[in-house]
Write a structure and sequence with these properties.
With 126 residues, this protein is mainly alpha-helical. The chain is 62% helix and 0% strand.
């Protein structure tokens, strides 16, 4: 199972990139608003739920605005929880490139959201 997932994601990525070259009408790619579900929900009041929905929307928009190569690396790492090695294999780039893309993606995301990276004291995945 460990080796099959990166292999399958490589196939999906390459198929998507081929489709994108043929069908993309513009330089941007849409991002599914429902994809990122990072903020937990519970039995909170309507104000809390509205704030969380707003936060999700802002996060989705910020991720969608990232350049494709940065967005791809960030999603594979943070949402798919893949290792740098697996991301390098899937995207067919050196591990150092994966590391720099992730660093740039995180920086751009923090700037877009008006935050300082790592300000909350949360640990960034390495």
């Amino acid at each position: 199972r460990g080796e099959a997932r990166p292999w399958l994601l490589s196939i999906v990525r390459n198929t998507f990139l081929t489709w994108l070259q043929i069908n993309r009408p513009a330089d941007t790619v849409g991002f599914d608003d429902g994809l990122v579900e990072l903020i937990p929900t519970g039995d909170d009041g309507p104000e809390i739920l509205a704030a969380r929905n707003f936060d999700r929307k802002m996060l989705n928009e910020a991720i969608a605005a990232l350049p494709l190569q940065f967005r791809e690396a960030l999603i594979l790492r943070e949402l798919e929880d893949l290792s740098y090695k697996d991301i390098a294999r899937i995207t067919d780039v050196p591990m150092g490139t994966v590391m720099s893309r992730l660093a740039r993606a995180r920086r751009l995301l923090a700037e877009s959201l008006g935050a300082t990276p790592n300000i909350s004291g949360t640990q960034v995945h390495k």
